[in-house]
Amino acid sequence: MKIYVFKRLLLLIPLLLGITLLTFSLTNALPGDPALSLVGERAQPEVIEKIRKELGSDKNIIVQYAGYLRLLLKGELGRSYYTNRKVFDDIVIKFPNTIKLALGAILIAVPIGLLLGFISAYKRNTYIDRLISSLSITGLSLPVFWSGLLIMLLLSLKLKLFPPSGTGDLRFLVMPALTLSLPAIATLARVTRTSVIEIFDMPFINTARAKGLPVMKINFVHVFKNALIPLVTVIGLDFGSYLNGAVLTETIFGWDGIGRFTMEGIIKRDYPVIMGCIMVGTVVFVLINLVMDIVYHYIDPRVRLHDSDR
After folding, report:
1. What is the pLDDT of residue 108?
2. Can you tell me whether residue 79 is helix, strand or coil?
3. What sign for the dihedral angle of Cα 203, 205, 208, 212?
4. pLDDT digit string (tens) for 219-267?
5. Quick one: 287 exposed, middle or buried, by C-beta within 10 A (0-12, 13-18, 19+)?
6. Which residues are within 8 A (CB) of 63 and not within 5 positions of it... i.e. 6 or more apart?
7. Are residues 100 and 222 in the same domain?
8. Phi-psi region at 79: left, alpha or beta (left = phi > 0; alpha = psi -120 to 50)
9. Residue 53 belongs to some domain of the structure
10. Cα separation of 54 and 51, whole Å?
11. In this structure, is residue 81 part of a structural domain?
């Protein structure tokens, strides 16, 4: 396992190099000029040219990319064009807020999604199953910006339970976390239902029933454990995407996290901010996938057997 983890971490180096090349090229291909965004189109040409030299955007793109790589080797992500603050320092400030939002969404989504999925599987082909399936499809179909505004309208403007926007304590967290969790609840419910039904039909479950094992033991020891593999995948991918910043949710609710920070960078053509957020997001996603693989190793004997064969 240690060798496997070491190899995966080594693969992070060429992955990050490829990501930097791709994102740097795409970022510089965006329409607009950061210098014009800073000083305005009515500024004197001399002023605009001076700003371009200060930003380094007057140089060849290859030279700019080489300079960015030198920054990364020093452990830096550059400075924001607008605030002149180090991008890394801003990310360190905003990333904990994104972690809070991601944890809040997962803590809502996992128990509700698993419960709905198990109920749907146990009551398959009944009106309860059809109702949960319809709700799941609805949850997947609703755009986040629309469901977020509905939640804000109901819980904040109508019932006055939570503040409409901002970053702060648990009262500020509830609505964005609930909005972010809705698609995950729907996905988990559908995946759980499919996985549990497949396991119900396997011979070892019939054998356990024939031996007279208690229903609770069959459900939680045999069914639930074997249904975990696809569920771990869904939960891990959702959590990784949340940590990369829920752009729409954070923007709607004014939550000061990585997603909103990235959106502001895109709007302002603040290339160091965009690149820095993408780099951090890539590292986070790779590490989340690595953690998922380690979890597989412990919950599925077949994975351990495969590892020993290698």
Report:
1. 92
2. strand
3. negative
4. 666 677 777 777 787 888 788 777 765 788 888 888 888 888 888 888 8
5. middle
6. none
7. yes
8. beta
9. yes
10. 5
11. no
Q: Mapping DSSP to helix (H, G, I), strand (E, B) and coil, where does residue 54 land?
A: helix
Size of the chain, expressed as the number of residues it contains: 310
Tokens of 165: 């926007």
Give the H or E element holding residue 300.
none
Structure token pair of residue 254:
């004014």
pTM reported for the whole predicted model: 0.80
Tell me if 193 is assigned to some domain: yes
Same domain for 48 and 100? no
Residues 55 and 92 in one domain: no
pLDDT < 50 stretches in the chain: 305, 308-310
Encoded tokens for 99: 């972690």
Contact 247, 257 (CB under 8 A): no
What are the backbone angles phi and psi of residue 224, rounded to the nearest 5°?
Answer: -65, -45
Q: Are the CB atoms for 275 and 80 separated by under 8 Å?
A: no
Among 190, 180, 201, 181, CA closest to 249: 180
Q: Which domain holds residue 274?
A: 87-309
- Domain count within the chain: 2
